Amino acid sequence: MNKPTSPSTLSSAAGIVSRGVPIGDLVQERRVHSAVYTDPEIFDLEMERIFSRTWIYIGHESEVPKTGDFRLRKIGRQPVIMVRGKDGEINVLMNRCLHRGAVVAEVESGNTKFFRCWYHGWTYDTAGKLVQVTADEGYEPGFCQKLGGLARPPLVQDYRGFVFASLSEDVLPLREHLGLAAGMMDYLIDFSPTGKISVNAGVNKTIYRGNWKLVGMDGYHVNYVHASVVEGWGEDENSGIAAMHKNDPFNDAALTRTRDLGRGHVALDFREHRMATIDKYVAFLRTIPGGEAYIEAMYAAYGEERAKRNLSLAGDPHLGVFPNLQLIGNQIRIMNPIAADETEVLMFPVLLEGVPDEINTLRIRQHESFYGPSASGSPDDAEIFERAQLGMNATVNPWLEMSRGLHREFVDVDGTRVGRISDETTQRGQMREWKRLMTAV
Amino acid sequence: MNKPMAVGHPADIRREFEAFLFHEARLMDKHQFGDWMALWDAECLYWVPCNSEDVNPDRELSIIYETHDQIQERVRRLSGKFAHAQQPKSRLIRVLSNIEIVSADDTTVTGTSTFVLGEVRLNRQMVWFGRNEHVLVRTAEGLRMRRKKVFVLNNDTPMPNMTFLV
Fold it and tell me: What pLDDT does residue B150 have?
């Protein structure tokens, strides 16, 4: 085909790429084509060009504290095992027997010395090494050594206990890839006076019939999608997550900002807004059970000034690390793409080490109030994502408008792009990285 | 929890307990939030564990772990116009069975039951299963819920919207 087809002239979104539309044309400065969210062909390309070509969050080291502890996770649609090996290191192994391809670990978590495939009894150790095949006279001597072991992602690195893997070797070192997002992650980790968090309080698993990118990072939706919750904040300013959202952070006149940190990492930046009322927040913390001891531990660990900054975000950097991780509220969140129109969201509440038990119990209660399948927040988000997915089937005008705040966005001294809290700076940042990965050859 | 007693309780306690459960089920099916709220004792706990039937709620996540004020807030939200996940509302029919009295005295009746809950919303039918534990106390107004625990069978799987009352 000599002349590329214009995306606007195609009435149906499916198969838009194989019909000749350059993928880069689907993401423009002000708008995004809905095929990006609805087309199964584009979804397959995402699995290859995004989930197999950049760093994917796997899990936190505290989820596998002891030798042999494991958790099942995914890289895109590919099943992996995160397991603590005998040497104390965390291994990420592809969950697929070398023989006929069956998963070798089937329950979601546990502790084991070996992974055994019960199809024909092949056995692997926690480093993934093939240690035994049954009836081995059927193979030449040295067969196990020759086969080696379970495949691995070529790269596994961690940032302060957050374990990432990459199926491609052609990536920046993790620390560089995270860039300024790493500093935002510190706000969660250093909300603990010991700089240690613990991710072993269970998980909310939810599913919605919509594209994985709809989870996004959006400071504009709160007053509408979450109107039922915002309505109640007036009644008790310290109930549930209201305690973290004083002085209407979602008003464009507030000091809150949307921030594009680069490489698809984005944040709703509450820092200056929170620091403006930090003394009020600290005073509130002192009133809760265990609060006094917690604040003293924070001051002792970091000094009062730094401690106040660490406390300011309430451990909530409201950060998206492209493509599958978010640190929001009191949780680590993983987005697992299932299909173009189906997504799993896993939400792990994070506990703090070195704090009174009451503080952690309160964190769990705060999380439950807004997140999970019966809570006040996430079901409304999922509902709206499903409505968006349905609406995007109307393709007479196939474009999503993402220009909000473009005229008032600016580049900060640290190189990040900054907008008002309701601006679509964050969505544009994510789509810019999407486009970079999807069009790279 | 003690071993359920098959015999030894007067039939009227069992009937009274059953009648309470059926009444509560009807209010939940019909989204009669205010009337359902009135079934709670002032001192109460509404607990829907997550990931298994028994977790330590102080250290582990629940789907719902609420006392009176938070249940009230849930009801306020669901009664309003902006709870999008219940716009439109789920159509619900639940069938209660396996009702057993665990213990009963002058002040308190404790019992377990199981349910099958059919839900239809936006052209999709879902079937939910669960096991209840009710602790009911006698008050001047009649039996009231002191504690209700609901084990939802698929609470360790990716779950869609479960914003109706369980």
Answer: 98
Homologous superfamily (CATH) for A179-439: Naphthalene 1,2-dioxygenase Alpha Subunit; Chain A, domain 1 (3.90.380.10)
Domain A56-159 is found in CATH 1.10.3720.10: no
Interface mutation target, options A346, A383, A385, chain B, most CBs of B under 10 Å: A383
Structural domain B11-152, CATH architecture:
Roll (3.10)
Residue A1 pLDDT = 44
Cβ burial A379-399 (10 Å sphere, 16+ → b, else e): bbbbbbbbebbeebeebeebe
Q: What are the structural domain ranges in chain A?
A: 56-159, 179-439
Place of tokens 């689907």: A26
Question: In this complex, which of B61, B85, B160 lies closest to A204 when CB atoms are compared?
Answer: B61
Residue that has been written with the tokens 């590329």 in this structure: A4
Q: Closest-CA residue in chain A for B124?
A: A209
| Average of per-residue pLDDT across A226-230 | 93
Torsion of CA A430, A435, A436, A438, to 10 degrees: 120
In the sheet that holds A155-159, the strands lie side by side as A56-60, A162-166, A155-159
- Whole-complex ipTM: 0.93
Chain centroid, CA A258 distance in Å: 17
Contact at CB, A225 and B159, closer than 8 angstroms: no
Q: How far apart are CA A424 and CA A301, in angstroms?
A: 37
Which residue type sits at A16? I
Query: CA-based diameter of chain B, in Å?
Result: 49
C-alpha span between A43 and A15 (Å, rounded): 11
Measure the CA angle with vertex B138, ends B136 and B142; round to 5°. 100
Whether residues A207 and B159 touch (CB distance < 8 A) is answered with: yes
> What whole-number distance in Å separates Cα of residue A318 and Cα of residue B47?
28
- Could B83 and A201 be called an inter-chain contact, meaning their C-beta atoms sit closer than 8 Å? no
